[in-house]
Amino acid sequence: QVQLVESGGGLVQAGASLRLSCAASGRTISNYVTGWFRQAPGKEREFVATILWSGGSTYNDDSVKGRFTISRDNTKNTIYLQMDSLRPEDTAVYYCAAAAPPLLYRRSNDYGYWGQGTQVTVSS
Q1: β-pairing, 18-26 with 78-83?
Q2: HSE-CB of 21 using CA atoms within 13 angstroms
C-alpha cells in the first residue's frame, strides 16, 4: 500500500503562487508514476501534471504549461507542485496520485493511490 498526504493549499489572489506537497509513505514508489489532478465544483477530475519517479520526466496539461512545475525529492519521498501566476479558473481541490506503470498518465482511473485532497482557491 501507498499512503499519500497533500498539504499547501489555501486562498490566494490572482497572480500569486502556491506550492503543494505530497508526501508518500508505505511501499517504495521508486518505479511509480506520481502526479496531480484537480476537481472543481460540478466538474470532472482533470489531469494537471505528472512525473516519472525514475528518471524524472514530466508532463503537464496545456492549461498549466509555463505556470505550474512538478518536481520530486527522492530523499523525502515527496512530490511538489509549484503553482505560479494563479488564475481564478485554477480554483479546485488538488489531489496527489500514484500508480505503477504501465498506464495512461492523463487518465485518473489508472491511478490506484490517492491523497485526501487540498483546496486551492484563487480570488479575482
Answers
A1: antiparallel
A2: 8
Q: Which pLDDT band holds residue 28 (cuts at 50, 70, 90)?
A: confident
Task: Report CA-CA distances (Å) from 40 to 19, 27, 57, 78, 92.
Answer: 18, 30, 27, 24, 4
User: Could you read off the pLDDT of 60-76 as tens digits, one per residue?
Assistant: 999 999 999 999 888 88
| Number of Cβ within a 10 Å radius of residue 21 | 17
Report the C-alpha gap between 77 and 21 in whole angstroms. Answer: 10
Cα–Cα dist 122/124, whole Å = 7
Residue whose C-alpha is closest to residue 29's, from 63, 77, 81: 77
Q: What is the pLDDT of residue 47?
A: 97
The amino acid present at 118, given as its one-letter code, is T
Cis check for the bond before 101: say yes or no (omega within 30 of 0).
Answer: no
C-alpha cell recorded at residue 121: 482557491
